[in-house]
Structure formats: structure tokens, C-alpha cells
Design brief:
By secondary structure, the chain is mainly alpha-helical. α15 runs antiparallel to α17. The radius of gyration is 22 Å and the shape is globular.
Length: 453
Amino acid sequence: MRHSPWTWVPSLYFAEGIPYVAVMTIALVLYKQLGLSNAEITYYTSWLYLPWVIKPLWSPFIDIVRTKRWWIIAMQLLIGAAFGGVAFTIPTSFWLQGTLCCFWLMAFSSATHDIAADGFYMLGLSQHEQSFFVGIRSTFYRLAMIVGQGVLIMIAGNLQVIFRNDIPYSWSLLFYGCCGMFLALWLWHAYILPKPETTSPQPSPKEREMLTETGTETGTKAEAFGQTSGTNAKEIGAELLNVIKSFFRKEQVIVGILFMLLYRMPEGLLVKVSTLFLIDNPGSGGLGLSPQELGFVQGTVGVIGLTLGGILGGMAAGRDGLKRWLWPMVCAITLPDIVYVFMAYALPHSLLVINVCIFIEQFGYGFGFTAYMLYLIYYSQGEYKTSHYALCTAFMALSMMIPGLFAGALQEMVGYRAFFIIVMAFCSVTFITSALLKIDPTFGKKNEENEEG
């Protein structure tokens, strides 16, 4: 019996979002409340981007070891175990080493889960179902952002009130709750995910690439649901080498890679420090928000602004093309960062003012990020477009990892006010790299025919 995609697509993409939020956002608040410095927090947590940086290098091998369904279920169990490990180690004397180890396990498991879940979605649904559910999966991924950045952090704050500011115990309870949630998701998906329906022959690596790009289903359901690929590691390795070589032989490769690495440099510096600024005490130059206030500001208002900006950016680029909207999007992703300069100097006490500032910054980021994502698609055109896009996303993760490694140390050296001014100065890098791009004026327009060959 084949279960309806409604029974597993929403929960699968909710499960994809929660661990990502945990290692990228919740970990920041946890370590800040446990007493780490900003330099230590940003350095340690930025390394957690690494699994997403190297994800394209090991993703082909997932096809030759078990199946995507097996990987999804196994990774959800590991993510649940990682949440439990964080919860267990927080009250101990080795809490830093223990939690970092568990967050590393969570990050690698989450990145692997992303690979398997996206592959299962593409190969396990018909082309019509893929198109229909693309909005559903995005919605539930965004819901995971709201739950992770908003609800879970607010719950941690409320637990601290209930248990008289016992911070380690409160966070430990929260992570035990996340562990239980993931064990429930693991049991649900082990039961509900579609199982083998066919034993058709397995495609070669290049054939899988073509099937993924064209949406063709023939010979792919076995790979998605339960049959092991017939290709070996040597073939996969040779094909991966061809993919990498062709990626670096593309026209304007240097400019393209510089754009991928530097377009979001201001955001790479800002993203972790901004959260720490919001919760840092006023004596250190922060706004002193409680976890409940932070959860509302970032997890609801911020996510709504980000989502609306992304939707409007997609609509604009779809109507007039990427080239027409490139510069408005460059301005949108950089100039709203000035709200942090304002907040660092004004130190507003009004939660309304803070919410408005965060909404403006996140709306601009969502609108401007559209240009970045569309360029990744543009750069990936041609042979191996799916694999090339995966390599582009590796550079995307690297673009956030590198600035984050030293962002906290820079902030501690100069203070929040000067740090946010430096971020604004680095916006010039975004303008310079964008000016070097050469983009087809018709790319992204609604009437463009994107099919090749």
C-alpha cells in the first residue's frame, strides 16, 4: 500500500529544518547563556557549517550504500541521539566538549539527511506530485525555522523561569524534549515512508543525473524506496571527478566563485553576532533580550520578513529576469544592515522598535538572497546541472563559514558599534563582485524556455 505524500512530505521537511536551526541558532543562545565569549561561540559554531560545505563530495556515495529511505530513517535516529547527547552532557563538567561533539554528530547527520530526503522527494514522487508539493515542503521547512528559532528558544526561557533560572537544567530539559520529538519522527517515517515497489535496473551515475534533471521516473523508484544501486565506488568517484573538472572549466569561473563566496560576506559576519547582540546585556553593549523575547523577534517576526522578502524577490525576478533586478537586490541584502548600527547606538528598549528593525533587515535579506540563489542556478546550467548546483551550495555554505570563524573575535576587539559599521563597510565587497557578473538579460523571465537539448 502506497501512502499519500501528504502523510510524509510535510513531516519529512519539518524534520529537515529542526536540526539545522539547532546547530546554527539554538547553539548560539545555549553557549551564550552558559558563559562562553562571543569569539568562542562564533568560532566553534561556524565549524558546524563544514558538513554542508563538503556535502556534495560524499552525496554520490549514499547511492551505493543502502538506500535513501534507509538513510533518512537512520539519520533521524542519529539526530535524536545527538539531541539526547546534548541534553545529557549540558549538566556535566565536560559540557563544552560533550555538546560540541553531539552538535557535530547532529550537523553531519542533518546534512546527510538533507541529501537523502531531497533525493527521495525527487525520485519517489511523480513529476506532477513534485510540482504540487514544492510549496508544501518549503512551508514546513519554514515552519521548522519558526519552531526552532522561536518556539524552542521561548520554551527554554520559560523553563528558566519555572526552575528559578537554573540555566543548564532548563536547556537539558529542552534538548531531551527535542530528542523525544525526533524519536517520534523516526518511528513515524519508518512506518509511513513508501517502501520498494519495483526491482527495475539501476541507472549509472550519469543516467541518474539526467533522470533527476528531466524529472523522468523510469528506473528510479527502486533507488528511492529500497533497492541498492548497482554502481560501485570507482565509477562514482570517476564521475564525481568529471563533475568537478567541468565545474571549474565554466566561463567566468573565477568571477562566479568570487560572487558565491563574497556576495553574502556582510551577512556572514552579521548572522551570528547579531543574535549575540540581541541577548547580550546592556553593560556589554547588547539589547539584553530574554530568550522569550528573542524567540519572538527572530523566530516569528524575522522569519516572516525573510519569507515575504523571498516571495516578492521571486515574483520580481520571474517577471523581469535576474539582470533587471540584480542591483535592487544587491541594495536590499546590504543596506538594511544599517539597522544594527542604529540599534547599537540607540539601544532601544521598545520591543516594537526592535521588531521593526529585524523585520526590515530580514525582509531585505530575503529579497536580496533571491539574486544569489538565481545566480547559482544560472551558473549551474549545462551538463551536470544538478551536480554543479550542489557544488554551488557548498560554496554558499563556505561563504557563511569563513566570516563566522573570526566575526566574534572582531566584535570583541572593537565592540558592537564599530563592528556593525565594519559590516556596512564590507557591503562594498557585495557591490564589487556583483558588478563583475555577466548575466543573460532573458534569464529568469517567465517566458524563458529553460529546457535544453
